[in-house]
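Researcher: Let's do a round of design. I'm pasting the structure tokens now; please hold your answer until I've finished.
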């Protein structure tokens, strides 16, 4: 195969010092793939410019070449804060009540995809594989095809894919999906999201789907598959055994003075169910007065998308809820919820995970959720904690030995917290061994290899096929 051209909204530039511990698992994996295959990671720099020029900032660090462009403030407002995060993101997470439809958003989205295509086009060589990431860039392949790009192009959607009836509420939804079908391979996190997509193209577009999930479109065969993403297991377990992780573990343990620790680590987003999680923990404390002063919830929630009104509201609501719950259950030397609005390096997070008796991963809807897998990987196998996982996270389909909950039911989650804290060691170890095997075997390298094989062509691909019984 030729080089790998990765295109995403943002680019994670490896530092010259190689501080991979500060990067997410996806960034680590893509950097590794680019080092192995050669190629370029292209996207927005995160910076604004008064006038778009298309200037490429090319860098090479740790064997990885990156190319970034700056966007105008109007681009950021309409494409990123607008269509991506106020239209597609809430719709794809089933929050049609928060979805905003604005013609300017749509125009900005198309304009920025055109700008991406114009800027990356000169970088693509005939034998390159092009890999586009996520909902920000759904029509990009169609624009590249219009410029004459014949390369194999793949798309991976990191979010859920909504049911047909929800997607049909999006203006010009068929045009958007038609543009996606200019890819050769379209990947989703789970078979559920895959089946939703296949149902749409069957029912709304009248397209035929083969037994191998091939979609006949304009004389081409487009393959749609589920490729569940994992963590970089080797890298994360190495971070978890570092001195930095041990120091974080010991610091957190010392600060709670023998109390049980529950931990949640989530970007500040309404899809994560943080308000419901706080209410569930409060219900647990109220239902079990004997646990008063004996359990602490550490919630790490770095802010995101601060320019979007709904995210500002989330932060205000959570701060208000935290104060109310702490006021009801605190003592002079104890507060039950530690709510922290900042991020931490991966090694420190690994130490915090290991210190926690319970991992609370309770999103209302999530494409995958890698925090669940990181929590498992960080545990002491001789004394592991218990993972409480939302059945609406994509990872629930793989991590069946977690305690699966309905995050909308405060009572159910509260009861499950008690069950987790009371779970005997033998059962904790049994569950953890099965969960760990899944996280280790289906890691991010496995995910990357499977997608690249599918994108390389039929002769390189063994594939996986969703059941079409639920689609027809």
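Researcher: That's everything. Go ahead.
Model: Designed sequence:
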């Amino acid at each position: 195969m030729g080089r790998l051209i990765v295109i995403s909204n943002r680019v994670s530039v490896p530092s010259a010092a190689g501080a991979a511990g500060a990067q997410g698992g996806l960034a680590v994996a893509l950097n590794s793939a680019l080092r192995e295959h050669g190629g370029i990671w292209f996207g927005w720099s995160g910076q604004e410019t008064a006038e778009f020029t298309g200037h490429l900032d090319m860098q090479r660090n740790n064997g990885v070449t990156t190319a970034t462009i700056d966007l105008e403030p109007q681009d950021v407002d309409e494409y990123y804060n607008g269509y991506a995060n106020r239209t597609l993101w809430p719709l794809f997470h089933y929050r049609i009540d928060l979805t905003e439809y604005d013609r300017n958003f749509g125009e900005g989205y198309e304009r920025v995809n055109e700008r991406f295509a114009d800027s990356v086009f000169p970088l693509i060589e005939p034998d390159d594989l092009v890999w586009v990431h996520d909902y920000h860039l759904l029509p990009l392949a169609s624009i590249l095809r219009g410029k004459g790009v014949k390369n194999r192009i793949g798309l991976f959607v990191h979010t859920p894919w909504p049911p047909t009836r929800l997607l049909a509420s999006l203006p010009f939804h068929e045009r958007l999906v038609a543009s996606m079908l200019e890819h050769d391979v379209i990947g989703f996190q789970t078979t559920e999201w895959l089946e939703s997509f296949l149902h749409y193209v069957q029912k709304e577009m009248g397209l035929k789907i083969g037994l191998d999930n091939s979609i006949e479109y304009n004389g081409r065969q487009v393959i749609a598959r589920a490729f569940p993403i994992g963590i970089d297991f080797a890298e994360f377990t190495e971070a978890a055994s570092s001195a930095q992780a041990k120091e974080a573990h010991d610091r957190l343990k010392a600060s709670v003075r023998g109390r049980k620790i529950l931990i949640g680590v989530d970007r500040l987003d309404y899809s994560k169910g943080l308000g419901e999680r706080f209410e569930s923990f409060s219900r647990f404390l109220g239902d079990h007065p004997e646990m008063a002063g004996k359990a602490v919830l550490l919630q790490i929630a770095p802010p995101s998308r601060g320019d979007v009104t709904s995210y500002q509201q989330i932060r205000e609501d959570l701060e208000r809820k935290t104060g109310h719950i702490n006021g009801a259950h605190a003592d002079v030397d104890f507060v039950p919820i530690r709510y922290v609005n900042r991020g931490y390096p991966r090694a420190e997070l690994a130490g915090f995970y290991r210190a926690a008796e319970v991992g609370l991963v309770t999103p209302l809807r999530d494409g995958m959720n890698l925090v669940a897998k990181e929590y498992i990987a960080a545990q002491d196998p001789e004394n592991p904690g218990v993972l409480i996982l939302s059945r609406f996270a994509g990872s629930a389909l793989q991590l069946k030995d977690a305690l699966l909950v309905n995050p909308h039911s405060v009572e159910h989650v509260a009861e499950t917290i008690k069950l987790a804290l009371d779970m005997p060691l033998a059962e904790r170890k049994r569950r953890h061994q099965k969960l760990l095997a899944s996280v280790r075997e289906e890691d991010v390298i496995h995910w990357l290899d499977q997608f690249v094989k599918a994108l390389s062509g039929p002769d390189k691909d063994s594939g996986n096929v969703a059941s079409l019984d639920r689609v027809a």
